[in-house]
Structure formats: C-alpha cells, structure tokens
Sequence to fold (374 residues):
Amino acid sequence: MQENFENNNKDNIKETEIDINEENAKENIKPKNKKVTIFNFILIVVIFVGLLIYMINVDGIDNIIEVLQKVDYRWVLLGVGCLFIHWTCEAITLHIPIKKMYKDQKFTNSIKVSMIGLLFNNITPFSSGGQPMQAYELTKTGKRVSDSLSAMAIKFIITQTALVITTLIVIVIEFNFFKNLMQDYIWVAIVGFSVNIVAIILVMLAGINKRFITIFTNPIIKFLGKIHILKHPDEKIEKLDKSIDNFAKQFKFMRSEKKMVLQMFITSVIQSLAYYSITYMVYRAFGNYGITFWQIIPTQAFLLLIMTFIPTPGSGLGAEGGFYLLFNSIFKEGTINMSILFWRMYTFYLPILVGTLFLIPIKRKKDNKNVEEI
Fold:
C-alpha cells in the first residue's frame, strides 16, 4: 500500500510539474505588447500610403486610370483563386500533424489558426509573431503549447524542404533564363538558398541529436545573459532543453509517419506553386506575355528569399523594391508600379485583412448556451 501511495504521489508531482510548465509556456507566448502591434499597423498603413503617393508622382493619375482600364480582370480573379489555394494548403499542412496528435481537431479551427498566423507573420518583423500566436490560439482548444510548437516545427521542416526542392528543380530547368535575369544578384540567390538549407538541417538536427544543438546554443544564451541582453539565461536554457526534448519525441513520431510526411510535402509543393502563380497572374493581368509560368517561379522564389532578410513588418519597402528590381525588365513600360500594388494586395494586405476578421469572436445560441464558433 505504501509503495502504491509513493508511486501515485510521484505521478501527481510529475503531472503538477507538467501543468506548471504548460502554464508558464502559455504566459510566454501570450501576446503582451499591444503598443508594438499598433505601431506595426501604423507602419504598414504609412508604407501603403507612401506607395500610392510614389505611384501618383511617377506615373500620374491619367496613366494609372488608363492602366486600370486595360487590366484583364480574368487574370485578377485567377490570382484570387491561387491565393485561396495557398491559404487552404497552409491550413492543411498545419491540420495534418495536429490531427495526428489530437483526434478532435477540427479543420475549421486549423483554418482560423493558419489565418491568424499569416496575419501576425505579416505585421511582425522577420515574420516572428505567427507561430507564437498560432500556439496561443491552439491552447484555447485544449492543445498543449509544446505539442503545438512541435507540430509547427515539423511543418517548417517539410514546407521549407518542399519550397527549396521545387525551386531548385525549376531553376535547373530554366537555368539560362534565371542566370541572365539574375546576373547581378546571383551571389545573393546562392546565400539565400544556403541559409534556408542550413535552417532546415539545424531544425532536423535538433530532433536527432540534442547535444549537437545545445553545445552551440547554451554558450550563446549564457553570453547574452552576461552582457545583459537576455534576462534569466539559466531559465532560458532549461526551457530550451525541455522544448528540444519534446521536439525530439515529435520528430521521432514524424519519421515513423511516412504517409503523413508525404501528404504534407505534396500539399506544400502545391502551396508553393500557388503562391508563385500569383506573380504570373499579375504579369498576365497587365497585358504582359513572352515569359512563361516556369520562368516566373525561380525569380519569385528569389524575391521571397530577399524578403526573409528584411526586418520590417511584411518586409515592407524591401518587398516592393525587390519586385521592381527583379521584374521591371520583363513588365510592360508603365505597368510595374501598379503590378507591385496588385501583388502586395494579394500577398500582404489581403492576408492582414482576412486574418484580422478571424480574430473577431463569433457567438451564437446553441442548446440554450452561448458557444464560440470556430
């Protein structure tokens, strides 16, 4: 009896520790600084207004109206279709691993979480706010923070691998076109692809060999603590240690679920192609022709790599400037600025608008109780 009591007591203590760690994790990912979010929204509005003012000064109102009258809106609608495919695939790649862990996960909730993630990716520097907000939203439906973050790490590995492989294959097929177009920036392309490949390898190593990662991260955290950039370094190391342990378990789970990985990989390839297709739809909407869909893809992929190094929310200014530099030579004269605006509407402003709508709680009466519809 004494032995059973001690075992039960140990189990209770262990469960209590897990609950405390989970509550601490929730506090860490819970959004706190509303002033920063408001500032980022203001910055986005300023960039948008600045782009409009720039267009009016460079192109003139008359030319802008003329260009808009000539737009083929069939291609515009196809671009909207590509955007919806991109959003749907984003939700599916999140839903698949979460559904494996929690059988009660609903796809409607995965859509909501994905759109909120896209919103906060676009309004935070280096797209840093998306994953914490997604994990926070998932805790509202009973998901553990550690499981949510592990699922998103799995998603990151697979989606980035699909993106890099798809892009490299297309670059090989259209190498001459890409080399001629990117001759002044080819070194940046090499660096960008290398960084993505290294990031994938590091995340995978975290799931395979914990010591290989901590041997680098722990000294860095301690150093940042000594120079007072990071508070409570020992606590940070302990939390990182637990997160890596949990991720290692989920990574082992992922390696055993080959069918799940294949489903996510195929979905991610479709997602990448849908995103790249938006640029081609904008290209055709403004009466451009001569460049094929497969030639647009590596150029757009390279632009995406540039955007990852821009610290402003949504890579503001860098994205617009990069689009101008890369595509100006293949767009009709007088259409590039309007094309940039349309492209940013698809890839930046619409995700913010739609993602914001998903933050609004919707309630209705059901069985004499108010329940939130997800």
